[in-house]
Amino acid sequence: MSGAATGAVRARLRAVFADAGVTGQLHALDLDSGAEVGIGADALVSTASTHKLCLAVAVRRLADAGHLDPKEQVEVPVHGRTAGGTGVAMLRDPVRMSLRDLLALALTVSDNAAADVLYDRVGLDGVNRAMAALGLTRTVAVHTGRDLLTAIDEDCGGDQARLLVDPGLTARLRVLDPERTNRSTPRELTRLLAAVWHDEACAPEGAAELRSVLAHQVWPHRLASGFPFDDVRVAGKTGTLPTLRHEVGVVEYPDGGRYAVAVFTRAARTAANQPAADAAIGTAARLAVESLRVPPRRGA
């Protein structure tokens, strides 16, 4: 793309975010040509549950090294289980399942309890070592899922209902400050996705399993909403915290085109439901990917 074309795309992306009442950061990368487009691509973001992708890669790398068996069966008791609205986190009885199935729940339904079993096994340092080994030095895990929930509860004095009506309180949450919580940049997360899609993040068998699991993520209202076509596959991981709505993933076209996209938004509104922000993620992703798919003019 020419500089003028890139500038026009960035202007359209900013307009999409502004119309939705959010600020947005985005990076899109052609996995084969290396062409890219972005806004705020190198600025730190609070990653929320998109960091479970980093956890997943760390788990697979430990398995590759023989330090972890993905088929190992583990008990997940009720006592001490991390809270959440999906997966094991919402169940009422003890659960026994394999580490790789816990990983599948952490990625497909963002199961906090399943993810924390894996965080406890791998350790925050283990996740960070995996990212550093891939050259992703600005991608840092500080909190497990339970740590995030505890920090939110402490910051609002135990009354989380206040977060819906007090923008000042919400703005002061530690989990929204990338200097004090799990963090990365849009560009580093598209690099991580590229490593998974190129079989460079872990062994090919494990990378293929990660790609398959990410394609079974259940929520279609963010990244996938921009690509409502039966022959376009979207594989992604969402992230959500008060005022934050994110998704990182890969869009694959039937002609072989493959594009990693990382979209991070922050709303001014404190409402629990942010449908405009959700939709803006898909719209912005489509604009970015379509700009990378425009064929060059003859003689250009």
Q: Explain this structure to me?
A:
Helix 2 (52-64) packs across helix 4 (112-122) and helix 2 (52-64) packs across helix 5. The protein starts with a helix and ends in a 7-residue tail after the last helix. Residues 296-300 have low confidence and may be disordered. It has ten helices and nine strands. The relative contact order is 0.19. With 300 residues, it is α+β, with helices and mostly antiparallel strands.
In short:
This protein has 300 residues and is α+β, with helices and mostly antiparallel strands. Helix content is 40%, strand content 18%. The longest helix has 19 residues.
The number of helical segments is 10
Major beta-sheet overview = 5 strands, antiparallel
Q: pLDDT average, as an integer?
A: 94
Q: How many whole angstroms does the radius of gyration measure? A: 19 Å
Beta-strand proportion: 15-25%
Give the beta-strand count: 9
Shape designation = globular
Strand sequence of the main sheet, in spatial order? 2-1-9-8-7
Counting helices, strands and paired strands, the structural category is alpha+beta
Distance from first to last alpha carbon: 10 Å
Order of helices and strands: HEEEHEEHHHHHEHHEEEH
Poorly predicted ranges = 296-300
* Helix content bin: 40-55%
